Amino acid sequence: MGSITLKSVRKAFGDVEVIPGVDLEINDGEFVVFVGPSGCGKSTLLRLIAGLEDVSSGQILIDGQDVTHAAPARRGLAMVFQSYALYPHMSVRKNIAFPLKMAGMAAAEQERRVSHAAGILNLTDYLDRRPGQLSGGQRQRVAIGRAIVREPSAFLFDEPLSNLDAALRVNMRVEISELHKKLATTMVYVTHDQVEAMTMADKIVVLRAGRIEQVGSPLDLYRRPANRFVAGFIGSPNMNFLEGQAAGTHDAHAIGVRPEHWRLSTSEGAFGGTVGVAEHLGSDTFLHVDLDDGTHVVARAEGEFPVDHGDRIHLTPQEGRVYRFDQQGLAI
Amino acid sequence: MATRHQTTLARLMVAPSVLLLLGWMIVPLGMTLWFSFQSYNLLSPGMERFIGFLNYEYFLSDPAFWTSMRNTLMLVGGVLVITVGGGIALALLLDQPMRGQGMVRILVIAPFFIMPTVSALVWKNMFMNPVNGLFAWMAKAVGAQPIDFLAEAPLMSIILIVSWQWLPFATLILLTALQSLDSEQMEAAEMDGAGAFSKFTYLVLPHLSRAITVVILIETIFLLSVFAEILVTTNGGPGYQSTNLTFLVYSQALLQFDVGGASAGGIVAVILANIVAIFLMRMIGKTLE
């Protein structure tokens, strides 16, 4: 079991209100990702759930139990930190067994759980090494192992992949997703990387300045962003926004078109422009286009699209793929 | 990487300072060694002659030698235990967020700036004096018999005074080490259910081990040669109860005017220091791996 409920949780550091009030429901077994730009309060929110910070007001419930003032260790949660926070002078085995030792578990049971976790995470050969002798990915796995052995009701991840290089990050992303499928335990995952959010999450929580902008499944957010911020944050490359006359014809203050939703043509279309940088990836072509009214947009063409710097190009939004926003930036 | 040419040049450039330092060390050492084989008393000038190991024989068979040897080790050991233990405790306290932190830290460091003679005299006259001292006053306030510290427990008193001087140093080094402890590690331990005591034994203490080694090493070097505190308080007495090796060499040379015997004592002290250094280096090698 591992459902987490936040009821108007508020957090202030002195006079600075970091989280003005958050209500959120996390269901048992869900993979929830908190995503948002840096400084949006997503890590603080996670630390509030973990109990490493005290809430200023509001309530946190885990499985219906009020744990607002419970000590971190009593909440039955396990956390994986950004820096891994391994204990440098202990072997991998002792690192993983540490929470069990603190709980006063019998040595045989400790050993059984450690070797089980090591088996899941491919760490069996490294159990007697020190963290300093491991690579970044292995350290990451040790940190996860230390979380697994406690058999917590939910895992908390605080930007766990940000210290890894790009290739390893993709691997670990898949590994964590697989782990979630295998354990079927609630996971709360904090990241500023929307690709991680889109690929891993069952439910994404988009945060800005301590407020929840939108909650929903990855494709929900992609298809029906509630406002301009979410629309711009979800999707890669970012959504293009057009204002003024172009928006007027769609009866909106601003319209948004995703790079993959343009129809491209070298001869005719709704908006004319000049190709700036053209990125030819083979599978896709990304074109950075300066429209005639000065707006800079990005367009994606599938496969190869033979244009180059300085060429004329015409873009037309696909039917029904135009997002409309009002003066306040809310979706119409 | 340096080329061979650069290495040669670097050696040439360093050579003058190396030679100066070598001379600085080797001349006094050589002269001490030379005097230690001479019968050389300041009261009978012009009578110097070579007497082989006789000075060493006299010095080592002097009952005061073994007493002072024991006192030296007790002094070093006692002060180390108090300063490292107290230093860890103080560092843990000072690491807590509190009002007026900067001021408190300066106050804690203050004893280190006071010269040894002054602090020893302050302790002797203002704290430990059996008539006017603060301790005597406190004893009298509760109706107890005041203790004449320097007469009844001279070595312990000196250990106390020297500890008071060195506690700030240990605290300072250990505090900086403590502040470099990763806060996420502490939080992880908290999530893992470690209490304050477990966090201390499993995280803080191993993290401090290097700093503790450094404190022990540096303090030992200075504590082997404690002198001023003994001179101004007990003068090595009563009897030889608070005489350490340094003080014994001093009394041999400047109270008994026996330069030869004192030189032999000096060489013995050098050998002792080197034995201690070997042990320390091994210990350091282990913790710094």
From TrEMBL, chain A:
* CDD domains linked: ABC_MalK_N (cd03301)
Can you cite an annotated GO cellular component? maltose transport complex
List the signal peptide residues.
Answer: none
Keywords for this protein: ATP-binding, Nucleotide-binding, Transport
Spell out the SMART domains in the cross-references: AAA
The UniProt record lists the ABC transporter domain at: 4-234
Under Gene3D superfamilies, the record lists: 2.40.50.100, Nucleic acid-binding proteins, P-loop containing nucleotide triphosphate hydrolases
Give the Pfam families listed for this entry.
Answer: ABC_tran, TOBE_2
Which GO molecular-function terms appear in the entry? Answer: ABC-type maltose transporter activity; ATP binding; ATP hydrolysis activity
Q: Does the keyword Thylakoid apply?
A: no
What's the family? Belongs to the ABC transporter superfamily.
Q: What is this protein called?
A: ABC transporter ATP-binding protein
Protein source organism: Paracoccus siganidrum
UniProtKB/TrEMBL annotation, chain B:
InterPro entries for this protein: ABC_transporter_permease, MetI-like, MetI-like_sf
- ABC transmembrane type-1 domain: residues covered: 69-280
What is the recorded membrane topology of this protein? Multi-pass membrane protein
Q: Name one Pfam family in it.
A: BPD_transp_1
TM region positions: 12-37, 73-94, 106-123, 155-178, 211-233, 253-280
What GO biological process terms does the UniProt entry carry, in alphabetical order? transmembrane transport
Keyword list (alphabetical) reads: Cell membrane, Membrane, Transmembrane, Transmembrane helix, Transport
A GO cellular component term found in this entry reads: plasma membrane
Instruction: Name where it's found.
Output: Cell membrane
Q: Which PANTHER family match?
A: ABC TRANSPORTER PERMEASE PROTEIN (PTHR30193)
User: Which family does the record claim for this protein?
Assistant: Belongs to the binding-protein-dependent transport system permease family.
> What is the protein's name according to its record?
Sugar ABC transporter permease
- Natural source organism: Paracoccus siganidrum
